[in-house]
Protein backbone atom coordinates (compact mmCIF):
# COMPACT_ATOMS: atom_id res chain seq x y z
CA UNK A 1 0.00 0.00 0.00
CA UNK A 2 2.33 2.77 -1.12
CA UNK A 3 1.64 6.39 -0.53
CA UNK A 4 -0.35 7.41 -3.53
CA UNK A 5 -4.02 8.08 -3.54
CA UNK A 6 -7.46 6.66 -3.87
CA UNK A 7 -9.40 8.64 -6.47
CA UNK A 8 -12.35 8.89 -4.09
CA UNK A 9 -10.19 10.49 -1.38
CA UNK A 10 -7.64 12.62 -3.26
CA UNK A 11 -4.68 14.48 -1.88
CA UNK A 12 -3.33 17.88 -2.74
CA UNK A 13 -2.23 18.21 -6.36
CA UNK A 14 1.40 19.18 -6.58
CA UNK A 15 4.21 18.87 -9.08
CA UNK A 16 7.18 16.61 -8.53
CA UNK A 17 10.12 16.94 -10.93
CA UNK A 18 11.56 13.53 -11.55
CA UNK A 19 15.06 14.97 -11.82
CA UNK A 20 15.09 16.10 -8.20
CA UNK A 21 18.46 15.17 -6.65
CA UNK A 22 16.84 13.85 -3.48
CA UNK A 23 16.32 10.50 -5.17
CA UNK A 24 20.01 10.08 -5.88
CA UNK A 25 21.76 8.80 -8.99
CA UNK A 26 20.07 5.40 -8.78
CA UNK A 27 16.72 6.82 -9.84
CA UNK A 28 16.04 6.49 -13.56
CA UNK A 29 12.39 7.41 -13.74
CA UNK A 30 11.40 9.55 -16.73
CA UNK A 31 12.41 13.21 -16.58
CA UNK A 32 8.96 14.68 -16.53
CA UNK A 33 6.62 16.55 -14.24
CA UNK A 34 4.24 14.35 -12.33
CA UNK A 35 0.91 15.61 -11.05
CA UNK A 36 0.15 13.91 -7.76
CA UNK A 37 -3.54 14.07 -6.90
CA UNK A 38 -6.81 14.93 -8.61
CA UNK A 39 -7.33 16.87 -11.78
CA UNK A 40 -8.43 20.50 -11.29
CA UNK A 41 -11.58 19.58 -13.18
CA UNK A 42 -12.44 16.68 -10.90
CA UNK A 43 -15.89 17.34 -9.52
CA UNK A 44 -14.86 15.79 -6.23
CA UNK A 45 -12.13 18.35 -5.61
CA UNK A 46 -14.11 21.54 -5.91
CA UNK A 47 -14.91 24.07 -3.25
CA UNK A 48 -17.52 21.81 -1.70
CA UNK A 49 -14.83 19.32 -0.71
CA UNK A 50 -14.01 21.29 2.40
CA UNK A 51 -17.59 21.41 3.67
CA UNK A 52 -17.74 17.79 4.78
CA UNK A 53 -20.19 17.46 7.64
CA UNK A 54 -19.28 15.94 10.95
CA UNK A 55 -21.54 12.94 10.34
CA UNK A 56 -19.92 12.18 6.99
CA UNK A 57 -16.49 12.47 8.51
CA UNK A 58 -17.41 10.07 11.30
CA UNK A 59 -18.77 7.68 8.68
CA UNK A 60 -15.43 7.77 6.89
CA UNK A 61 -13.77 6.81 10.16
CA UNK A 62 -15.96 3.74 10.73
CA UNK A 63 -14.23 0.33 10.66
CA UNK A 64 -16.04 -0.52 7.41
CA UNK A 65 -14.65 2.53 5.63
CA UNK A 66 -11.20 2.11 7.17
CA UNK A 67 -11.10 -1.41 5.74
CA UNK A 68 -12.27 -0.13 2.37
CA UNK A 69 -9.39 2.34 2.37
CA UNK A 70 -6.92 -0.43 3.22
CA UNK A 71 -8.22 -2.77 0.51
CA UNK A 72 -6.94 -0.51 -2.32
CA UNK A 73 -10.11 -1.18 -4.27
CA UNK A 74 -10.76 1.03 -7.28
CA UNK A 75 -8.31 3.34 -8.99
CA UNK A 76 -5.32 4.81 -7.21
CA UNK A 77 -3.61 3.79 -3.99
CA UNK A 78 -3.96 4.62 -0.34
CA UNK A 79 -1.11 5.51 1.98
CA UNK A 80 0.01 2.54 4.13
CA UNK A 81 -1.05 4.18 7.40
CA UNK A 82 -4.24 5.87 6.23
CA UNK A 83 -6.65 3.30 7.66
CA UNK A 84 -4.90 3.47 11.06
CA UNK A 85 -4.81 7.21 11.66
CA UNK A 86 -7.06 9.16 13.99
CA UNK A 87 -8.89 10.96 11.19
CA UNK A 88 -8.72 8.98 7.92
CA UNK A 89 -11.71 10.94 6.64
CA UNK A 90 -9.62 14.12 6.68
CA UNK A 91 -6.70 12.86 4.65
CA UNK A 92 -6.54 15.15 1.66
CA UNK A 93 -3.29 17.08 1.22
CA UNK A 94 -5.16 20.09 -0.07
CA UNK A 95 -6.68 23.29 1.18
CA UNK A 96 -10.02 22.72 2.86
CA UNK A 97 -12.37 25.54 1.90
CA UNK A 98 -14.91 26.40 4.57
CA UNK A 99 -17.27 29.17 5.56
CA UNK A 100 -15.86 32.02 7.57
CA UNK A 101 -18.45 31.33 10.28
CA UNK A 102 -19.77 27.89 11.24
CA UNK A 103 -23.42 27.14 10.78
CA UNK A 104 -25.43 27.44 14.00
CA UNK A 105 -24.93 24.31 16.03
CA UNK A 106 -22.06 23.10 13.85
CA UNK A 107 -18.79 22.36 15.58
CA UNK A 108 -15.83 24.45 14.54
CA UNK A 109 -13.11 22.41 12.89
CA UNK A 110 -10.61 23.76 15.40
CA UNK A 111 -12.79 23.02 18.41
CA UNK A 112 -10.95 21.17 21.12
CA UNK A 113 -7.54 21.44 19.47
CA UNK A 114 -4.74 22.02 21.96
CA UNK A 115 -2.98 25.38 22.06
CA UNK A 116 0.63 25.93 23.11
CA UNK A 117 2.03 29.32 24.06
CA UNK A 118 5.28 30.28 22.39
CA UNK A 119 6.65 31.86 25.55
CA UNK A 120 9.37 29.43 26.61
CA UNK A 121 12.65 31.24 27.11
CA UNK A 122 16.02 29.80 26.02
CA UNK A 123 16.87 28.81 29.60
CA UNK A 124 13.45 27.51 30.60
CA UNK A 125 13.53 23.82 31.38
CA UNK A 126 11.70 21.40 33.71
CA UNK A 127 14.19 22.09 36.52
CA UNK A 128 14.20 25.89 36.39
CA UNK A 129 10.39 25.89 36.23
CA UNK A 130 10.25 23.41 39.13
CA UNK A 131 8.34 20.73 37.22
CA UNK A 132 10.93 18.24 38.48
CA UNK A 133 13.91 18.52 40.77
CA UNK A 134 17.48 17.87 39.70
CA UNK A 135 17.51 14.21 40.74
CA UNK A 136 14.24 13.51 38.89
CA UNK A 137 15.54 15.25 35.78
CA UNK A 138 18.72 13.17 35.82
CA UNK A 139 16.63 9.99 36.13
CA UNK A 140 14.47 10.91 33.13
CA UNK A 141 17.51 12.06 31.14
CA UNK A 142 19.31 8.75 31.66
CA UNK A 143 16.08 6.85 30.96
CA UNK A 144 15.71 8.55 27.57
CA UNK A 145 19.23 7.66 26.47
CA UNK A 146 18.88 4.08 27.66
CA UNK A 147 15.48 3.38 26.10
CA UNK A 148 14.60 5.90 23.37
CA UNK A 149 17.73 7.42 21.89
CA UNK A 150 18.83 4.30 19.92
CA UNK A 151 15.87 4.81 17.57
CA UNK A 152 17.06 8.30 16.52
CA UNK A 153 20.69 8.39 17.67
CA UNK A 154 21.55 12.01 16.97
CA UNK A 155 22.44 13.53 20.34
CA UNK A 156 25.96 13.14 21.66
CA UNK A 157 28.14 15.04 24.10
CA UNK A 158 31.87 14.82 24.65
CA UNK A 159 31.49 16.45 28.04
CA UNK A 160 32.14 14.45 31.19
CA UNK A 161 28.56 15.25 32.24
CA UNK A 162 26.23 15.14 29.20
CA UNK A 163 23.34 16.09 31.48
CA UNK A 164 24.92 19.39 32.51
CA UNK A 165 26.36 20.02 29.05
CA UNK A 166 23.07 19.67 27.17
CA UNK A 167 21.14 21.57 29.82
CA UNK A 168 23.63 24.44 29.61
CA UNK A 169 23.68 24.53 25.80
CA UNK A 170 19.99 24.27 24.92
CA UNK A 171 16.89 24.39 27.10
CA UNK A 172 14.78 23.23 24.14
CA UNK A 173 16.75 20.02 23.60
CA UNK A 174 17.07 19.34 27.32
CA UNK A 175 13.31 19.76 27.82
CA UNK A 176 12.53 17.55 24.83
CA UNK A 177 14.73 14.75 26.16
CA UNK A 178 13.08 14.94 29.59
CA UNK A 179 9.60 15.07 28.02
CA UNK A 180 10.13 11.97 25.87
CA UNK A 181 11.62 10.08 28.80
CA UNK A 182 8.68 10.98 31.02
CA UNK A 183 6.25 9.79 28.33
CA UNK A 184 7.28 6.19 29.10
CA UNK A 185 8.68 6.42 32.63
CA UNK A 186 5.52 5.97 34.72
CA UNK A 187 4.27 2.85 32.96
CA UNK A 188 7.81 1.47 32.84
CA UNK A 189 8.02 1.78 36.61
CA UNK A 190 4.58 0.19 37.07
CA UNK A 191 5.49 -2.79 34.89
CA UNK A 192 8.75 -3.36 36.74
CA UNK A 193 7.32 -2.82 40.19
CA UNK A 194 9.43 0.27 40.80
CA UNK A 195 8.12 3.29 42.67
CA UNK A 196 8.26 6.22 40.22
CA UNK A 197 9.99 9.39 41.28
CA UNK A 198 7.61 11.75 39.47
CA UNK A 199 3.95 12.60 39.93
CA UNK A 200 1.31 11.37 37.41
CA UNK A 201 0.68 14.93 36.17
CA UNK A 202 4.35 15.63 35.48
CA UNK A 203 4.63 14.15 31.92
CA UNK A 204 1.81 16.34 30.62
CA UNK A 205 3.33 19.46 32.19
CA UNK A 206 6.75 18.77 30.66
CA UNK A 207 5.10 18.01 27.30
CA UNK A 208 3.45 21.44 27.31
CA UNK A 209 6.81 23.05 27.98
CA UNK A 210 8.45 21.09 25.12
CA UNK A 211 5.78 22.20 22.67
CA UNK A 212 6.10 25.76 23.96
CA UNK A 213 9.79 25.57 23.05
CA UNK A 214 8.86 24.22 19.61
CA UNK A 215 6.47 27.10 19.02
CA UNK A 216 9.01 29.62 20.30
CA UNK A 217 11.61 28.31 17.85
CA UNK A 218 9.47 29.77 15.05
CA UNK A 219 9.94 33.26 16.47
CA UNK A 220 13.60 33.15 17.45
CA UNK A 221 16.14 34.61 15.06
CA UNK A 222 19.11 32.59 16.24
CA UNK A 223 19.30 28.81 16.24
CA UNK A 224 21.80 26.06 16.85
CA UNK A 225 22.23 22.39 16.00
CA UNK A 226 20.53 21.39 19.25
CA UNK A 227 17.32 23.11 18.08
CA UNK A 228 17.31 20.94 14.96
CA UNK A 229 17.84 17.83 17.07
CA UNK A 230 15.07 18.74 19.50
CA UNK A 231 12.63 19.38 16.66
CA UNK A 232 13.44 16.06 15.01
CA UNK A 233 12.95 14.20 18.28
CA UNK A 234 9.53 15.83 18.74
CA UNK A 235 8.58 14.68 15.25
CA UNK A 236 9.45 11.12 16.25
CA UNK A 237 7.75 10.98 19.63
CA UNK A 238 4.41 12.76 19.88
CA UNK A 239 3.58 13.96 23.37
CA UNK A 240 -0.20 14.30 23.07
CA UNK A 241 -2.75 11.50 23.00
CA UNK A 242 -5.60 11.20 20.53
CA UNK A 243 -3.65 12.73 17.67
CA UNK A 244 -3.57 16.03 19.56
CA UNK A 245 0.04 16.88 18.82
CA UNK A 246 1.39 18.52 15.67
CA UNK A 247 1.57 16.55 12.44
CA UNK A 248 5.07 14.99 12.51
CA UNK A 249 5.50 15.67 8.79
CA UNK A 250 4.96 19.37 9.43
CA UNK A 251 7.45 19.23 12.29
CA UNK A 252 10.12 17.66 10.07
CA UNK A 253 9.42 20.45 7.58
CA UNK A 254 10.24 23.02 10.26
CA UNK A 255 13.25 20.92 11.18
CA UNK A 256 14.50 21.06 7.60
CA UNK A 257 14.25 24.85 7.53
CA UNK A 258 16.24 25.12 10.75
CA UNK A 259 18.85 22.75 9.34
CA UNK A 260 19.09 24.72 6.08
CA UNK A 261 19.50 27.95 7.96
CA UNK A 262 22.49 26.42 9.73
CA UNK A 263 23.88 24.97 6.49
CA UNK A 264 23.52 21.32 7.47
CA UNK A 265 22.35 20.41 3.97
CA UNK A 266 25.61 21.56 2.36
CA UNK A 267 28.62 19.25 2.33
CA UNK A 268 31.34 20.99 4.29
CA UNK A 269 35.01 21.29 3.35
CA UNK A 270 37.40 18.58 4.39
CA UNK A 271 38.10 19.10 8.09
CA UNK A 272 41.68 19.92 9.03
CA UNK A 273 41.39 19.54 12.81
CA UNK A 274 39.72 16.98 15.10
CA UNK A 275 37.37 19.71 16.33
CA UNK A 276 36.23 20.48 12.79
CA UNK A 277 35.74 16.78 12.05
CA UNK A 278 33.63 16.31 15.17
CA UNK A 279 31.46 19.33 14.37
CA UNK A 280 30.91 18.18 10.80
CA UNK A 281 30.12 14.66 11.94
CA UNK A 282 27.47 15.88 14.40
CA UNK A 283 25.86 18.01 11.70
CA UNK A 284 25.89 15.24 9.09
CA UNK A 285 24.52 12.70 11.57
CA UNK A 286 21.54 14.94 12.32
CA UNK A 287 20.93 15.84 8.66
CA UNK A 288 20.96 12.25 7.44
CA UNK A 289 18.70 11.16 10.30
CA UNK A 290 16.29 13.90 9.27
CA UNK A 291 16.39 12.68 5.67
CA UNK A 292 15.54 9.15 6.77
CA UNK A 293 12.71 10.07 9.11
CA UNK A 294 11.13 12.68 6.86
CA UNK A 295 11.24 10.24 3.93
CA UNK A 296 9.54 7.53 5.95
CA UNK A 297 6.79 9.95 6.99
CA UNK A 298 6.13 10.72 3.31
CA UNK A 299 5.89 7.00 2.59
CA UNK A 300 3.77 5.92 5.55
CA UNK A 301 1.40 8.88 5.72
CA UNK A 302 1.19 9.69 2.03
CA UNK A 303 2.62 13.17 2.37
CA UNK A 304 4.51 14.96 -0.42
CA UNK A 305 8.23 14.34 -0.44
CA UNK A 306 10.56 17.15 0.55
CA UNK A 307 12.17 18.64 -2.52
CA UNK A 308 15.44 20.25 -3.49
CA UNK A 309 17.79 18.73 -0.91
CA UNK A 310 21.05 17.64 -2.46
CA UNK A 311 24.13 16.31 -0.74
CA UNK A 312 22.60 13.14 0.70
CA UNK A 313 25.87 11.21 0.68
CA UNK A 314 25.97 8.49 3.30
CA UNK A 315 29.30 7.15 2.04
CA UNK A 316 31.10 10.44 2.72
CA UNK A 317 29.41 10.50 6.11
CA UNK A 318 30.77 7.04 6.95
CA UNK A 319 34.25 7.98 5.78
CA UNK A 320 34.17 11.04 8.03
CA UNK A 321 32.97 8.98 10.99
CA UNK A 322 35.57 6.25 10.47
CA UNK A 323 38.34 8.68 11.41
CA UNK A 324 36.69 10.42 14.34
CA UNK A 325 33.77 8.46 15.82
CA UNK A 326 34.00 6.15 18.80
CA UNK A 327 32.92 2.53 18.59
CA UNK A 328 29.37 3.17 19.85
CA UNK A 329 29.01 6.24 17.64
CA UNK A 330 30.26 4.30 14.63
CA UNK A 331 27.52 1.74 15.19
CA UNK A 332 24.96 4.57 15.29
CA UNK A 333 26.41 6.06 12.11
CA UNK A 334 26.25 2.73 10.29
CA UNK A 335 22.62 2.43 11.30
CA UNK A 336 21.82 5.94 10.02
CA UNK A 337 23.64 5.25 6.73
CA UNK A 338 21.68 2.02 6.25
CA UNK A 339 18.44 3.92 6.85
CA UNK A 340 19.40 6.57 4.29
CA UNK A 341 19.87 3.88 1.64
CA UNK A 342 16.57 2.29 2.62
CA UNK A 343 14.83 5.68 2.47
CA UNK A 344 16.09 6.21 -1.08
CA UNK A 345 14.36 2.96 -2.10
CA UNK A 346 11.19 4.13 -0.37
CA UNK A 347 11.45 7.48 -2.14
CA UNK A 348 11.67 5.80 -5.51
CA UNK A 349 8.65 3.68 -4.58
CA UNK A 350 6.66 6.85 -3.92
CA UNK A 351 7.85 8.40 -7.18
CA UNK A 352 6.98 5.32 -9.22
CA UNK A 353 3.48 5.16 -7.75
CA UNK A 354 3.01 8.84 -8.50
CA UNK A 355 4.10 8.15 -12.06
CA UNK A 356 1.57 5.34 -12.41
CA UNK A 357 -1.17 7.48 -10.90
CA UNK A 358 -0.44 10.44 -13.15
CA UNK A 359 -0.40 8.37 -16.28
CA UNK A 360 -3.60 6.63 -15.18
CA UNK A 361 -1.93 3.35 -15.93
CA UNK A 362 -3.86 0.20 -16.51
CA UNK A 363 -3.25 -1.57 -13.20
CA UNK A 364 -4.00 -4.95 -14.79
CA UNK A 365 -0.32 -5.17 -15.78
CA UNK A 366 -0.89 -3.66 -19.22
CA UNK A 367 2.41 -2.51 -20.77
CA UNK A 368 3.49 0.92 -19.65
CA UNK A 369 6.64 1.99 -21.44
CA UNK A 370 8.51 5.11 -22.41
CA UNK A 371 11.67 5.14 -24.53
CA UNK A 372 11.77 1.37 -24.28
CA UNK A 373 11.70 1.39 -20.46
CA UNK A 374 8.97 -0.58 -18.67
CA UNK A 375 7.22 1.36 -15.88
CA UNK A 376 4.43 -1.10 -15.10
CA UNK A 377 3.56 -2.30 -11.61
CA UNK A 378 5.31 -5.58 -12.35
CA UNK A 379 8.51 -3.78 -13.42
CA UNK A 380 8.40 -1.66 -10.28
CA UNK A 381 8.00 -4.70 -8.04
CA UNK A 382 10.84 -6.49 -9.80
CA UNK A 383 13.35 -3.64 -9.70
CA UNK A 384 12.68 -2.36 -6.18
CA UNK A 385 12.66 -5.89 -4.73
CA UNK A 386 16.07 -6.40 -6.32
CA UNK A 387 17.35 -3.25 -4.66
CA UNK A 388 15.90 -4.36 -1.33
CA UNK A 389 17.68 -7.70 -1.71
CA UNK A 390 20.95 -5.86 -2.36
CA UNK A 391 20.34 -3.71 0.71
CA UNK A 392 19.73 -6.84 2.82
CA UNK A 393 22.91 -8.48 1.54
CA UNK A 394 24.94 -5.47 2.58
CA UNK A 395 23.35 -4.55 5.89
CA UNK A 396 21.49 -7.39 7.64
CA UNK A 397 22.64 -10.66 6.06
CA UNK A 398 24.53 -12.71 8.66
CA UNK A 399 27.46 -13.05 6.27
CA UNK A 400 27.88 -9.28 5.97
CA UNK A 401 30.63 -7.41 7.77
CA UNK A 402 28.31 -4.41 8.06
CA UNK A 403 25.77 -6.56 9.88
CA UNK A 404 28.44 -7.49 12.43
CA UNK A 405 29.39 -3.85 12.92
CA UNK A 406 25.75 -2.82 13.27
CA UNK A 407 25.46 -5.01 16.35
CA UNK A 408 22.16 -4.65 18.15
CA UNK A 409 21.12 -1.87 15.76
CA UNK A 410 20.85 -4.53 13.06
CA UNK A 411 17.56 -5.86 14.42
CA UNK A 412 16.02 -2.40 14.13
CA UNK A 413 17.42 -1.94 10.62
CA UNK A 414 15.96 -5.29 9.56
CA UNK A 415 12.57 -4.40 11.04
CA UNK A 416 12.39 -1.19 9.05
CA UNK A 417 13.44 -2.97 5.87
CA UNK A 418 10.51 -5.35 6.36
CA UNK A 419 8.26 -2.29 6.50
CA UNK A 420 9.55 -1.05 3.15
CA UNK A 421 9.20 -4.53 1.65
CA UNK A 422 5.62 -4.73 2.89
CA UNK A 423 4.77 -1.28 1.48
CA UNK A 424 6.12 -2.41 -1.90
CA UNK A 425 4.84 -5.96 -2.23
CA UNK A 426 1.40 -5.38 -0.72
CA UNK A 427 0.64 -3.68 -4.05
CA UNK A 428 0.38 -7.12 -5.58
CA UNK A 429 -2.75 -7.76 -3.50
CA UNK A 430 -4.58 -4.86 -5.10
CA UNK A 431 -7.84 -6.13 -6.63
CA UNK A 432 -7.45 -6.87 -10.33
CA UNK A 433 -3.72 -7.54 -10.36
CA UNK A 434 -3.78 -11.29 -9.68
CA UNK A 435 -5.80 -13.27 -12.23
CA UNK A 436 -5.29 -16.81 -10.88
CA UNK A 437 -5.15 -18.00 -14.48
CA UNK A 438 -1.92 -19.98 -14.23
CA UNK A 439 -0.03 -17.53 -16.42
CA UNK A 440 3.62 -16.64 -15.72
CA UNK A 441 2.49 -13.10 -14.85
CA UNK A 442 0.07 -14.42 -12.23
CA UNK A 443 2.74 -16.68 -10.77
CA UNK A 444 5.11 -13.72 -10.53
CA UNK A 445 2.50 -11.57 -8.84
CA UNK A 446 1.78 -14.41 -6.41
CA UNK A 447 5.47 -14.46 -5.50
CA UNK A 448 5.25 -10.78 -4.56
CA UNK A 449 2.23 -11.50 -2.37
CA UNK A 450 4.36 -14.13 -0.65
CA UNK A 451 7.10 -11.52 -0.06
CA UNK A 452 4.54 -9.19 1.47
CA UNK A 453 3.22 -11.99 3.66
CA UNK A 454 6.70 -12.84 4.89
CA UNK A 455 7.39 -9.16 5.61
CA UNK A 456 4.19 -8.81 7.65
CA UNK A 457 4.85 -12.01 9.61
CA UNK A 458 8.49 -11.04 10.20
CA UNK A 459 7.34 -7.66 11.51
CA UNK A 460 4.97 -9.26 14.00
CA UNK A 461 7.60 -11.79 15.05
CA UNK A 462 10.19 -9.05 15.60
CA UNK A 463 7.83 -7.28 18.00
CA UNK A 464 7.08 -10.57 19.74
CA UNK A 465 10.79 -11.26 20.15
CA UNK A 466 11.27 -7.75 21.55
CA UNK A 467 8.97 -8.61 24.44
CA UNK A 468 11.56 -11.18 25.50
CA UNK A 469 14.29 -8.52 25.26
CA UNK A 470 13.10 -5.93 27.76
CA UNK A 471 10.31 -4.77 25.41
CA UNK A 472 12.72 -2.41 23.68
CA UNK A 473 10.31 -1.64 20.82
CA UNK A 474 7.75 -0.25 23.29
CA UNK A 475 9.96 2.84 23.64
CA UNK A 476 10.32 3.43 19.89
CA UNK A 477 9.11 6.46 17.99
CA UNK A 478 5.48 6.29 16.91
CA UNK A 479 6.15 5.29 13.30
CA UNK A 480 7.40 1.84 14.29
CA UNK A 481 4.28 1.21 16.36
CA UNK A 482 2.01 2.17 13.49
CA UNK A 483 4.04 -0.06 11.15
CA UNK A 484 3.08 -3.03 13.33
CA UNK A 485 -0.54 -2.00 12.82
CA UNK A 486 0.12 -1.82 9.07
CA UNK A 487 1.32 -5.44 9.15
CA UNK A 488 -1.87 -6.44 10.95
CA UNK A 489 -4.02 -4.65 8.37
CA UNK A 490 -2.25 -6.47 5.55
CA UNK A 491 -2.90 -9.81 7.26
CA UNK A 492 -6.59 -8.87 7.47
CA UNK A 493 -6.61 -8.15 3.73
CA UNK A 494 -4.76 -11.36 3.00
CA UNK A 495 -7.20 -13.43 5.06
CA UNK A 496 -10.14 -11.86 3.21
CA UNK A 497 -8.86 -12.11 -0.36
CA UNK A 498 -10.25 -14.56 -2.90
CA UNK A 499 -6.80 -15.01 -4.45
CA UNK A 500 -4.58 -17.98 -3.72
CA UNK A 501 -2.53 -17.18 -0.64
CA UNK A 502 0.90 -18.54 0.35
CA UNK A 503 0.02 -19.62 3.91
CA UNK A 504 -2.86 -21.25 5.71
CA UNK A 505 -5.51 -18.84 6.97
CA UNK A 506 -5.07 -20.27 10.45
CA UNK A 507 -1.47 -19.06 10.34
CA UNK A 508 -2.64 -15.61 9.25
CA UNK A 509 -5.17 -15.52 12.10
CA UNK A 510 -2.45 -16.51 14.58
CA UNK A 511 -0.10 -13.70 13.59
CA UNK A 512 -2.96 -11.22 13.35
CA UNK A 513 -4.05 -12.06 16.85
CA UNK A 514 -0.44 -11.84 18.03
CA UNK A 515 -0.04 -8.38 16.47
CA UNK A 516 -3.21 -7.07 18.11
CA UNK A 517 -2.31 -8.46 21.51
CA UNK A 518 1.19 -7.04 21.26
CA UNK A 519 -0.25 -3.60 20.52
CA UNK A 520 -2.57 -3.92 23.49
CA UNK A 521 -0.19 -5.52 25.99
CA UNK A 522 3.08 -3.68 25.39
CA UNK A 523 1.72 -0.15 25.83
CA UNK A 524 4.12 1.91 27.94
CA UNK A 525 3.34 5.39 26.63
CA UNK A 526 1.25 8.10 28.26
CA UNK A 527 -0.18 8.85 24.79
CA UNK A 528 -1.62 5.32 24.44
CA UNK A 529 -0.76 5.26 20.76
CA UNK A 530 -0.21 1.50 20.71
CA UNK A 531 -3.52 0.84 22.45
CA UNK A 532 -5.34 2.96 19.89
CA UNK A 533 -3.77 1.17 16.91
CA UNK A 534 -4.58 -2.20 18.51
CA UNK A 535 -8.22 -1.23 18.93
CA UNK A 536 -8.47 -0.14 15.29
CA UNK A 537 -6.96 -3.45 14.13
CA UNK A 538 -9.36 -5.41 16.34
CA UNK A 539 -12.32 -3.49 14.88
CA UNK A 540 -11.09 -4.09 11.33
CA UNK A 541 -10.76 -7.80 12.06
CA UNK A 542 -14.37 -7.91 13.19
CA UNK A 543 -15.59 -6.15 10.05
CA UNK A 544 -13.60 -8.64 7.94
CA UNK A 545 -15.22 -11.54 9.76
CA UNK A 546 -12.02 -12.72 11.47
CA UNK A 547 -12.72 -13.83 15.02
CA UNK A 548 -10.17 -12.37 17.44
CA UNK A 549 -11.41 -13.28 20.93
CA UNK A 550 -11.61 -10.45 23.44
CA UNK A 551 -8.99 -10.65 26.14
CA UNK A 552 -11.50 -11.19 28.95
CA UNK A 553 -12.82 -14.41 27.38
CA UNK A 554 -9.33 -15.93 27.35
CA UNK A 555 -8.67 -15.56 31.07
UniProtKB/TrEMBL annotation:
<dbReference type="GO" id="GO:0000981">
    <property type="term" value="F:DNA-binding transcription factor activity, RNA polymerase II-specific"/>
</dbReference>
<feature type="compositionally biased region" description="Basic and acidic residues">
    <location>
        <begin position="54"/>
        <end position="63"/>
    </location>
</feature>
<dbReference type="InterPro" id="IPR051089">
    <property type="entry name" value="prtT"/>
</dbReference>
<keyword id="KW-0539">Nucleus</keyword>
<keyword id="KW-0805">Transcription regulation</keyword>
<keyword id="KW-0479">Metal-binding</keyword>
<keyword id="KW-0862">Zinc</keyword>
<keyword id="KW-0804">Transcription</keyword>
<protein>
    <recommendedName>
        <fullName>Xylanolytic transcriptional activator regulatory domain-containing protein</fullName>
    </recommendedName>
</protein>
<dbReference type="InterPro" id="IPR007219">
    <property type="entry name" value="XnlR_reg_dom"/>
</dbReference>
<dbReference type="GO" id="GO:0005634">
    <property type="term" value="C:nucleus"/>
</dbReference>
<dbReference type="Pfam" id="PF04082">
    <property type="entry name" value="Fungal_trans"/>
</dbReference>
<keyword id="KW-0238">DNA-binding</keyword>
<feature type="domain" description="Xylanolytic transcriptional activator regulatory">
    <location>
        <begin position="248"/>
        <end position="325"/>
    </location>
</feature>
<feature type="region of interest" description="Disordered">
    <location>
        <begin position="1"/>
        <end position="65"/>
    </location>
</feature>
<dbReference type="GO" id="GO:0006351">
    <property type="term" value="P:DNA-templated transcription"/>
</dbReference>
<feature type="region of interest" description="Disordered">
    <location>
        <begin position="93"/>
        <end position="121"/>
    </location>
</feature>
<feature type="compositionally biased region" description="Polar residues">
    <location>
        <begin position="40"/>
        <end position="53"/>
    </location>
</feature>
<dbReference type="GO" id="GO:0008270">
    <property type="term" value="F:zinc ion binding"/>
</dbReference>
<dbReference type="GO" id="GO:0000976">
    <property type="term" value="F:transcription cis-regulatory region binding"/>
</dbReference>
Amino acid sequence: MPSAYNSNDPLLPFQLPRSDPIFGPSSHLPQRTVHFGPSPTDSQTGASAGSVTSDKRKNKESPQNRLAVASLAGQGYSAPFQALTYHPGVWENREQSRRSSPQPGAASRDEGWPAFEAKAGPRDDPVTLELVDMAQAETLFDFFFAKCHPFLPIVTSADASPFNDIRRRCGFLFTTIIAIGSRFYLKHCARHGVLPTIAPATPAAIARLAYSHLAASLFRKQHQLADVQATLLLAGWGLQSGGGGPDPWLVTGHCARLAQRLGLHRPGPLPTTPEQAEKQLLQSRTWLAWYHFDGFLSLGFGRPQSQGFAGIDEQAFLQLGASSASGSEMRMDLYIASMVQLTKIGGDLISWIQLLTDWQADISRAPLTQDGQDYSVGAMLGELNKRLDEWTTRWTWNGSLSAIHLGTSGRLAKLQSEHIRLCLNSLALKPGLVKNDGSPESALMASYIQKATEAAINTVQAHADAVKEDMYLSYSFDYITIALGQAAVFLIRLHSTTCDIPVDRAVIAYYLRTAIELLEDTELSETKNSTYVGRICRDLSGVAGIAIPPRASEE
